[in-house]
C-alpha cells in the first residue's frame, strides 16, 4: 500500500542539524538560554505593535497563564467557543472556573457575536459578569474580530485569542495573534511550524510578560526556596527554541504552501457535487488554511462515507470538532446558541493539508473524491 498521507505533519526542510549541535555544544539545554530570547524576539518582530512574547512548553499552558494573568479563579465564569479543540477549555477548568459555551456563526465557524452578547446579558442579570472570553481562529480562519472586540469593549470583558492554529492569518490587514488582551500560538507537531512541542503567550506590555515568565518558572521568590504563590513549570526549552528558530526561516514558504493546497482543493472540488469547501467569506479575511475543511451536503453520501473511503486508501482525514458543550464532561455547563457547531460536526471533514503535500499526494486524494461523482 502507498505510504500514509497525514492530516498535518511536521515539516523540516533541512537535513543539516548543526543548529542543534551548536545548542548542545553551548550546554544551554534547559529552560534558559539565547535561543529562547531570540525566538521570542523573532515572533515579536513578526507581530509588531510592540507586543511581547513568552515562549512556553505548549499552547495549552499559554492559555492557562493568560487566565491566571486575568485573575481567573474558583467559581469565576469564562466564556468559550464551543467549536474547538479541548485544549481551549481545559485551562478554564484547571483554574476551578466555569466555562460557558457559545455557538459558531456560519461565515467563519468561529464564535457567534450575537450569542456572545446574549450570554453576557444573561449572566449580568444574575450578577455573574464573565471574567474573560476565549475566541478561537479555528483551522486558521480569523474570527469576526470587529464585532467580537466591540462587545468585549462594550461590556469591559477581556478577550483571550486562541490563535493556536492561525499563525500567518490576517483579518483586515491585522495578524491573528494580535487581537486578544492575551493571545497564544501553538507549535505542536501538527501546526504551521513546530518546536516538537511548544507555544507562546502574547502580551501587550513588558510587565505582563515579566509576570508570565515568573509564573512559568515556578514563581521563584526573592529568598532561597521561598515562594508566595503557586507557580508552574511551563517554560520552553532552549533546545526546542532552536527548532523554532530554524522553522521560522521557512514560515512564509509554509504558509504559502498551505494556501496553495487550498487552491488545489478548489480545483478538485469544482467537479465533485454536494461537497462545499470552506472558503474565506470576505476578501479582507486571509486564512492560513492550516486545515482545509469540507461540508458534505449530499443526498447519497455522508461525511462518514468519505471518511471511510479515505481511510481505506491510507489517507488521514478527520471529522470536524465535536462541540465542547456536547462532550460528556462538559455537558453540564451553559450553552448559548443553536445547532451550527453541531451540524458542522455531523457533516464536515478536514482534509490533508500539510505544507509538504506533493502533487502525487493530491492525485491520490483526487482519485478518492472521484469515487463520489
Ligand atoms: C493545538 C491547539 C491548542 C493547544 O496547543 P498545544 O501546544 O498542543 O498545547 C489549543 N487550541 C487549539 C485550537 C489548538 O489547535
TrEMBL record:
Residue positions of the active site: 191
Chain positions found as N6-(pyridoxal phosphate)lysine: 191
Transmembrane segments: none
Signal peptide span: none
Coiled-coil residues: none
SUPFAM superfamilies (UniProt xref): PLP-dependent transferases
InterPro entries cross-referenced by the UniProt entry: DegT/StrS_aminotransferase, PyrdxlP-dep_Trfase, PyrdxlP-dep_Trfase_major, PyrdxlP-dep_Trfase_small
MF GO annotations: pyridoxal phosphate binding; transaminase activity
UniProt keyword terms in alphabetical order: Aminotransferase, Pyridoxal phosphate, Transferase
GO BP terms in the entry: polysaccharide biosynthetic process
Assigned protein family: Belongs to the DegT/DnrJ/EryC1 family.
PANTHER family: DTDP-4-AMINO-4,6-DIDEOXYGALACTOSE TRANSAMINASE (PTHR30244:SF34), TRANSAMINASE (PTHR30244)
Protein name per UniProt: Pyridoxal phosphate-dependent aminotransferase
Amino acid at each position: 500500500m502507498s505510504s500514509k498521507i497525514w492530516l498535518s505533519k511536521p515539516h523540516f526542510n533541512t537535513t543539516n542539524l548543526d543548529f542543534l549541535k551548536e545548542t548542545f555544544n553551548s550546554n544551554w539545554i534547559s529552560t534558559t538560554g539565547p535561543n529562547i530570547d531570540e525566538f521570542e524576539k523573532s515572533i515579536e518582530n513578526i507581530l509588531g505593535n510592540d507586543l511581547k512574547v513568552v515562549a512556553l512548553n505548549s499552547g495549552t499552558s499559554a492559555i492557562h497563564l493568560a487566565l491566571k494573568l486575568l485573575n481567573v479563579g474558583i467559581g469565576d465564569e469564562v466564556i468559550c467557543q464551543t467549536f474547538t479543540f479541548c485544549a481551549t477549555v481545559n485551562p478554564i477548568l484547571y483554574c476551578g472556573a466555569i466555562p460557558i459555551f457559545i455557538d459558531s456563526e456560519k461565515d467563519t465557524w468561529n464564535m457567534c457575536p450575537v450569542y456572545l452578547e446574549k450570554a453576557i446579558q444573561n449572566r449580568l442579570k444574575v450578577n455573574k459578569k464573565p471574567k474573560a472570553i476565549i475566541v478561537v481562529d479555528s483551522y486558521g480562519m480569523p474570527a469576526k474580530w470587529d464585532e467580537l472586540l466591540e462587545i468585549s469593549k462594550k461590556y469591559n470583558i477581556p478577550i483571550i485569542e486562541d490563535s493556536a492554529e492561525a499563525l500567518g492569518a490576517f483579518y483586515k490587514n491585522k495578524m491573528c495573534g494580535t487581537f486578544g488582551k492575551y493571545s497564544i500560538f501553538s507549535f505542536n507537531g501538527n501546526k504551521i511550524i513546530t518546536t516538537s512541542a511548544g507555544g507562546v503567550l502574547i502580551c501587550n506590555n513588558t510587565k505582563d510578560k515579566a509576570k508570565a515568565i515568573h509564573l512559568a518558572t515556578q514563581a521563584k521568590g526573592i529568598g532561597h526556596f521561598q515562594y508566595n504563590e503557586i507557580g508552574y513549570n511551563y517554560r520552553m526549552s532552549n533546545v526546542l527554541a532552536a527548532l523554532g528558530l530554524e522553522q521560522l526561516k521557512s514560515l512564509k514558504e509554509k504558509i504559502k504552501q498551505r494556501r496553495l493546497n487550498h487552491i488545489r482543493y478548489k480545483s478538485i472540488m469544482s467537479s465533485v457535487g454536494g461537497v462545499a469547501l470552506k472558503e474565506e467569506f470576505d476578501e479582507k479575511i486571509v486564512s492560513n488554511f492550516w486545515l482545509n475543511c469540507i461540508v458534505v451536503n449530499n443526498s447519497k453520501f455522508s461525511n462518514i462515507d468519505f471518511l471511510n473511503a479515505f481511510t481505506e486508501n491510507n489517507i488521514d482525514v478527520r471529522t470536524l470538532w465535536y462541540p465542547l458543550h456536547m462532550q460528556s464532561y462538559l455537558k453540564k455547563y451553559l450553552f448559548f446558541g443553536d445547532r451550527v457547531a453541531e451540524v458542522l460536526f455531523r457533516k464536515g471533514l478536514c482534509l490533508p493539508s500539510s505544507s509538504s503535500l506533493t502533487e502525487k499526494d493530491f492525485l491520490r486524494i483526487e482519485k478518492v473524491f472521484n469515487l463520489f461523482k
